[in-house]
Amino acid sequence: xxxxxxxxxxxxxxxxxxxxxxxxxxxxxxxxxxxxxxxxxxxxxxxxxxxxxxxxxxxxxxxxxxxxxxxxxxxxxxxxxxxxxxxxxxxxxxxxxxxxxxxxxxxxxxxxxxxx
Length: 116
Known about the structure:
By secondary structure, this protein is mainly alpha-helical. It has helices spanning 4-36, 48-58, 65-74, 84-97; strands spanning 62-64, 102-104, 107-109.
């Protein structure tokens, strides 16, 4: 059984860790706001491919990769994440490679749509 001092120390360490995480999320929000304007939290906490499928579905099934990334960032997908834009790009590349998405040049689409 932990001593009362150890319990308090563990709680303090946990709170300090959570403060660091919250600061990182706030910094990420600030950077997103500076680059893309006021972000929403529409995609906050989503798995990237689910957010990509949602956006593509809302925009006719295909769109330019850069526009897609901008919408995802504006929707809060990257909020609080390290290497956020890189994670989106990696997710797009992997899902094109595994067939969940199609890619051609600057465009990305859902599999049922033809890319021109």
